[in-house]
Design a protein that fits this description.
By secondary structure, the protein is of the alpha/beta class. Helix content is 32%, strand content 17%. It folds into two domains: 118 residues, Quinone Oxidoreductase, Chain A, domain 1, CATH 3.90.180.10; 156 residues, NAD(P)-binding Rossmann-like Domain (Rossmann fold), CATH 3.40.50. The chain contains twelve helices and twelve strands. Strand 7, helix 8 and strand 8 form a beta-alpha-beta unit. Helix 3 packs across helix 5 and helix 7 crosses helix 8. It starts with a helix and ends in an 18-residue tail after the last strand. The site of NADP nicotinamide-adenine-dinucleotide phosphate has 24 residues, from helix 3, helix 5 and strand 5.
Length: 324
């Protein structure tokens, strides 16, 4: 609960159950559900509007349109690590940046367009790198030294060390993209979102550019972006800064289902890799420990996965009753 408050995640009533990423076995389905059956191994990004949907419990509920079968090659733990990262990245690219395979098929965009992913080793950024690359865009990314190869292997054409100084990073991005940087995806914070804006403030002056900042934009940009209008960075260079709302995945079931179908197909075909995972073995008791590790920045380039079936009861015994 404290962690949810720290991270500004909505808690609409008490008691509350947090957690969005889930993989497990279907226990029951509603009468009208035809795409899933009890016993199916599935994964989902649960809805955040009800405590009954929270992942940090033995059983949770989800709308059938937001649930997908786990590809046979993946473990429950791998599947549980996918939803928030992959779905957020896909929603951002497809809904807010208008980047998709379809758009390329329609030859509406310049294949030379670059996408900047600041934080390519974040769980979300890792999928953004892969999807943008799969859609045919060139990708430039910023990551920690130890994760540069990891991000390169995900499909980034250029990976820069986050420890370079800010001016050097912005200059290098502008040079590497030859003024073709139309899209930026920031998964780190307002400071790096500001650097994304600086990097975009060059080159092509026709058409709008887009910055999706998952963790906020700098104050000055927030004021300028008020009203949802594109912000003019310098003469003729405009940037849209849409506030990403992942709830479109739940609120538009057709879009959500299509997106899951696409991601699952890429996973089955081996075109999309699962981000690295670290399994914590203490069951639900490890939730707060894991969130603290994340908050302290001690987890680099990995998603923490907790096995609910490892939760000890009041006597400290383990009961194996499935996976989540
Ligand atoms: N708006 C939404 O709906 C939505 C949805 C999902 C996530 N988010 C937000 O998006 C952000 C990312 O989430 P996540 O779960 O993907 O993150 P995460 O995996 O927990 O991110 C941790 C990673 O951040 C990287 N990092 C930290 N500082 C960096 C910097 N200056 N430059 C480059 N990389 C840096 C580190 O990589 P290195 O070790 O390589 O430096 C670390 O591995 C969070 O703020 C989260 O709250 C928002």
């Amino acid at each position: 609960m404290r962690q949810a408050k720290d991270y500004n995640f909505g808690i609409s009533s008490l008691p509350w159950v947090s957690g969005r990423d889930v993989a497990g076995v279907i226990e029951q389905v509603g009468e009208s559900v035809t795409n899933l059956s009890p016993g199916d191994a599935v994964f989902t990004l649960t809805d955040y509007t009800s405590a009954r949907c929270g992942a940090f419990q033995d059983y949770c509920i989800a709308h059938h349109a937001s649930v997908a079968l786990i590809p046979p090659s993946l473990t429950f733990e791998e599947a549980a690590s996918i939803p928030v990262g992959a779905i957020t990245a896909a929603v951002a690219l497809k809904r807010y940046m208008d980047i998709s395979a379809q758009n390329h098929d329609a030859s509406q965009k310049d294949i030379e367009d670059w996408v900047l992913v600041w934080g390519g080793a974040t769980c979300t950024g890792y999928y953004a790198v892969q999807l943008a690359s799969l859609y045919g865009y060139k990708v430039i990314s910023v990551a920690g030294k130890d994760n540069m190869d990891y991000v390169r292997e995900a499909g980034a054409n250029v990976v820069l060390d986050r420890d370079m100084n800010d001016t050097e990073l912005v200059d290098t991005i502008q040079q590497a993209t030859s003024g073709q940087l139309s899209y930026a995806f920031d998964a780190v914070g307002p400071g790096t979102a500001g650097l994304c804006l600086q990097a975009m403030n060059t080159g092509k002056s026709n058409g709008n550019k887009t910055l999706v900042a998952l963790a906020g934009i700098p104050k000055h940009a927030k004021t300028a972006a008020r009203g949802g209008q594109p912000v003019e960075l310098s003469k003729g260079i405009f940037v849209n800064m849409p506030e990403i709302k992942v709830k479109v995945f739940h609120n538009d079931p057709e879009f959500g289902q299509e997106l899951l179908r696409e991601l699952t197909t890429y996973l089955i075909n081996g075109q999309l890799r699962v981000s690295r995972i670290k399994i914590m073995d203490g069951g639900l008791e490890d939730v707060n420990k894991g969130l603290s590790l994340l908050k302290e920045g001690q987890i680099s380039g990995s998603k923490l996965v907790i096995r609910v079936d490892r939760t000890p009861d009041a006597q400290g015994d383990l009961h194996y009753h499935g996976w989540l």
